[in-house]
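Signal peptidase I
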Amino acid sequence: MKWTLLAFAALILGPILIWRARRNATPVYDAEQMNEGALWGYFLILVGAWGALSMIANPSDLFFVVMMVASVLALIARLRGYKAKGNERNLPDWAAFGFSNALVLALIGLGKTFVVEPMQIPSSSMRPGLVVGDFILINKSAYGVRIPFLNIPIIPMGKPERGDVVVFHYPQDTKINFIKRVIGLPGDKVEYHNKLLTINGVKVDSIPVGDYPYSDTGVETVQAIRMRETLGNKPHDTLNVPGTPTLQPASVVDFPMRENCQHDETGFTCTVPPNRYLMLGDNRDNSNDGRYWGFVPDDHLAGRAFLIWMNFGDFSRIGTRIQ
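Predicted C-alpha cells:
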C-alpha cells in the first residue's frame, strides 16, 4: 500500500512541477538550459507510471513498452520541431530531452526484451550452482522471440530441454520471475519420492560428492550434502539436507491440472500436461517449486540462464557458466 501511494503521489506532483517550470520557459528551447523543475517533473511521472503499472504487469514487459512508447513519442515531437525556411518551431522540453536519449533507450529496451536480460539471484533455491548475490544473464531468445505481454513466440528458436536452468513468470503471480531447472517435459511422468527422482520409469542417478555447509543469514549454517545428477546430457549438482522431508503436503496449493499429480508425505508423482513444464530447484529441500504450485505454461517462459556476470561478494564467480 505504501508504494502504491508513493506512485500516485509522484503522478500528481510531476505535472505540477512541469506546469510551474513551463511558466518560466524561454521562447527558444535550449537543451542545456532545461529547467530543473521540469526535469524533476518528468522524472516523477516516469517513476509514478512505472510504479503504478508494475502492480499489474511483469517488469520486463513493462520496461520494453515504456521505452518504446517514450522513444516513439520523442521521435514524433522531434520531427514536428524541425527548422525550415527560417521559421523555427519550438520543440517541447520533454520531447527534446526524450529524443536525446531515445535511441539508447530503444536499443536497451530491444536488447533486454529479445536478446539478453540481467537478473539477480535472490534466494538459495538453486544452490550450489547459483547463490544469493549472483548477477546472471538470461538468453531471452532461447525459446523463441516472443511478443511482450502475450509472450507468444513469433520466431521459434527452440524448446526447453531437461536440465535447462530457466527463468519464467511465476504461475501464482506473473509479475514475479522465478528461476528453476527443467525436470519434466510435456508428457513426462515425473516421480520424486524419498528424495529419489524418476522420469518415465528411469531412475536419475544422484551421487554424493561431498559436504556443502552454507549460510545466507550469517547466523545459522545449513549442513547439506552435494549430489551429482545428470538430466539428459547435462550434469549438475543438487543439495540434499539430511533430516528434511521430501515434501510438505500442507504447503501444496491448488493449481491448474492438479489432477495430474498425487502428493503424499514421501513426495509426489506428476504427469506433465501438453505445453507445460515441471520445474524444481537444485536445493531440493529449500525450494518453492513445481511440487507445490504445479506446472509452468509455455507462455510463461522468459529465457534460459547461461552466465554469472557479477557477484560483489565473490569475484571468483564472475564468468562462471551456468550448468
